[in-house]
């Protein structure tokens, strides 16, 4: 799974760079900027967890989240988020 985490790590870093670029040079619509800043906070938290070896653990139960879920939503923090998202999907996010 180590190689898989490298992929997620690189994707998070690339997304962070893109969002920071948008913040610095993009439009100044406060409605959009709020979402970008929230996403940046989530990305920073996920990157910090990766660097500390805590990435992928549910913040509530401490159990590991399914890798397939993390591939889809790499900033996920808990199994509760998985349940919230799955209620809007017709099919499970992971199988």
Description of the structure:
- The chain is mainly α.
- The protein is built from 4 helices and no strands.
- Helix content is 64%, strand content 0%.
- It is globular.
- The model has no long low-confidence stretch (mean pLDDT 87).
Features:
mainly alpha; 95 residues
**pLDDT averaged residue by residue:** 87
- What's the multimeric state? single chain
Alpha-carbon distance between the two ends: 17 Å
Output the structural class: mainly alpha
Q: Provide the low-confidence segments as ranges.
A: none
Q: What form results from the Cα inertia axes?
A: globular
**H/E element sequence:** HHHH
Q: List how many beta strands DSSP finds.
A: 0
Question: Considering DSSP H and I runs of 4 or more, what fraction of the residues is helical?
Answer: 55-70%
Radius of gyration from the alpha-carbon trace, in angstroms: 14 Å
Short description:
By secondary structure, this protein is an all-alpha fold.
SSE arrangement:
Elements: H1 2-25, H2 30-52, H3 67-72, H4 79-86
Helix pairs in contact: 1-2
């Amino acid at each position: 799974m180590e190689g898989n985490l490298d992929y997620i790590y690189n994707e998070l870093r690339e997304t962070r760079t893109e969002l920071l670029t948008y913040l610095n040079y993009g439009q100044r619509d406060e409605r959009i900027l709020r979402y970008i800043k929230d996403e940046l906070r989530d990305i920073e938290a996920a990157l910090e967890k990766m660097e500390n070896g805590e990435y992928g653990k549910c913040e509530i139960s401490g159990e590991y989240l399914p890798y397939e879920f993390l591939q889809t939503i790499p900033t996920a923090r808990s199994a509760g988020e998985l349940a919230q998202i799955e209620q809007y999907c017709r099919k499970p996010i992971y199988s």
